[in-house]
Amino acid sequence: MKSLFATLILLGTLGFSGLTLAQEVPAAAVEALSAPMVDAVAPAAAPAVAAPAATPVPDKGDTAWMLVSTLLVILMVIPGLGLFYGGLVRAKNMLSVLTQVFAIFCMISVLWVVYGYSLAFTGGGDLNSAIGGLSKMFLAGVDPSVNVETFSKGVVIPELVFMVFQLTFAAITVALIVGGFAERIKFSALLVFSALWFTFSYLPMAHMVWFWGGPSAHSDPAGFLFAKGALDFAGGTVVHINAAMAALMGAIVIGKRVGYGRDSMAPHNLMATMIGASLLWVGWFGFNAGSNLEANGTAVLAMVNTVVATASAAMAWMFAEWMLKGKPSMLGMASGAVAGLVAVTPAAGFVGPMGAIILGLVAGVACLWGVTGLKKALGYDDSLDVFGIHGIGGIIGAIGTGILVNPALGGTGVFDYATNAVAEYSFSTQVASQLWGVGTAIVWSGVVSFVLFKLIDMVMGLRVPEEQEREGLDTAAHGERAYNY
């Protein structure tokens, strides 16, 4: 009797809903009609509904670390790079270098949020291999509620902090170029070049090397060099080789300083240079360890490598110079330290500490040759040795990363997100990928920079008049002096 009563109720309910048994419950309902009523209404009879996955929430520690890393990279530029470069020029040009670095940082910061971030870190459709799109122009859709994935599946940080962290990379890259033609370029021409080079060289390189779908969408289209498997943890190609080629092209197109090779052009304030180099080293912890995007063991590895590679490069330069010239110099140690920082940048999170030491030792000696033997052989006037340190050091670091990432040599290996495990290491494959990165950076930046310098020289002129160069750019270009005695 109870079964008949249950059947009548169920049929009435289905009829009220405008449904038929054949439409909704062809077989299962027939069994339900003959079951006791308690079974028909029991929760176990309803289909199981999976609970929605929890939306990842940024960890406050990761967010705090990224904020600190961003501040550290800003410290690298202003005042770090400004003081390092400023101390290396003659006293009459100290203020001009500080002004150039400061102005570039300000200009690139604005251009980055207007269109730079979008072109570097969004999909570019048919052009995605080389450049992104404009979907996030003026930071459209980028607000405090939006998160982006790190290098770990399901781990996120606020997109705004990722955006501003990458802003500092763009700014320091453009500012590095100043050293190639310091003491002789027109301030207006420099600003025009910086804006154009940022657009046509930095943004494509950043997109090609660093744009991808993230660990949860690793199969999505990526930038050209990321898809090639080129490893660049914090910017060996994007920052250092890229900037070095621009500085070299500028030094060649603009020409040598008046009196180069005849007049004394010794650094006027090595104390400022030493302080600047030290600030660069401190800030580089944000540059390298911050590039992990999380406060975890890999960030610590990057920090350790940033210490030991820099120290070993400074020592290598010092001892090599001591052997060649009979005396170790503070300038040599500071330059060696920067060479080590450059070399470990692409490798920071991929190699072990012993590998980082090897990179530093090689870079210290090679970059010393770059600023002496190579520069003399080719005869260019790279005022502050941007190519000799950032170019040579960046190339060594990029190729060295492909070798020392090998787990058998203490490296971390290359993580394969498809298998969720470290992939089998292949020397030939990985080094070939690194060479793709190095070659692309050299050619791309070299061609873009040369063309831009030539065009700007034709339109507005690149170089200050000779009398202004002799007077010094502090007063000639800015009407001020770094020192008033």
SSE inventory with pairings:
Blueprint: H1 2-16, H2 21-24, H3 28-33, H4 37-41, H5 60-88, H6 94-121, E1 147-149, E2 156-158, H7 159-176, H8 187-210, H9 224-227, H10 236-254, H11 270-289, H12 297-325, H13 330-344, H14 353-378, H15 386-404, E3 415-416, E4 421-422, H16 427-459, H17 466-471, H18 473-478
Helix pairs in contact: 5-6, 5-7, 5-11, 6-7, 6-8, 7-8, 7-10, 8-10, 8-16, 10-15, 10-16, 11-12, 11-13, 12-13, 12-14, 13-14, 13-15, 14-15, 15-16
Notes on the protein architecture:
The structure is a single chain. The protein has helices spanning 2-16, 21-24, 28-33, 37-41, 60-88, 94-121, 159-176, 187-210, 224-227, 236-254, 270-289, 297-325, 330-344, 353-378, 386-404, 427-459, 466-471, 473-478; strands at 147-149, 156-158, 415-416, 421-422. By secondary structure, it is an all-alpha fold. It folds into two domains: 2-43, no CATH class; 63-478, Orthogonal Bundle (Ammonium transporter fold). The strands form two sheets. A two-stranded antiparallel sheet has the order 1-2. It has a two-stranded antiparallel ribbon with strand order 3-4. α7 (159-176) crosses α8. The radius of gyration is 29 Å and the shape is globular.
